[in-house]
Design a protein that fits this description.
This protein is mainly beta. It has one helix at 4-13, and strands at residues 16-20, 29-36, 40-44, 50-54, 58-61. This is DUF2642 domain-containing protein.
């Protein structure tokens, strides 16, 4: 699970993130971190819609290479 400090850094710097939900890259969510709590993250997608996702998913900067293996 991603830490509050990492999420805060992504939010403050406006870094676009990728949330990897499963092995299919088409199911990734990309956007900017807006808010979070103990269990979820709210991300604003490029089309300005917001999505609420579990913090258990892998969160990484969108500029980084997507991992080949997902546990």
């Amino acid at each position: 699970m991603i830490t509050d400090e990492q999420l805060d850094a992504y939010r403050i710097e406006g870094i676009k993130v990728r949330i990897v939900r499963d092995a299919d890259p088409a199911n990734d969510v990309r956007g900017i971190v807006v808010a979070w709590d103990d269990e979820s993250i709210i991300v604003r997608r490029p089309n300005r819609k917001v999505v609420k996702l579990s913090r258990d998913y892998l969160v990484q900067p969108a500029s980084e290479k997507r991992p080949d293996t997902i546990l």
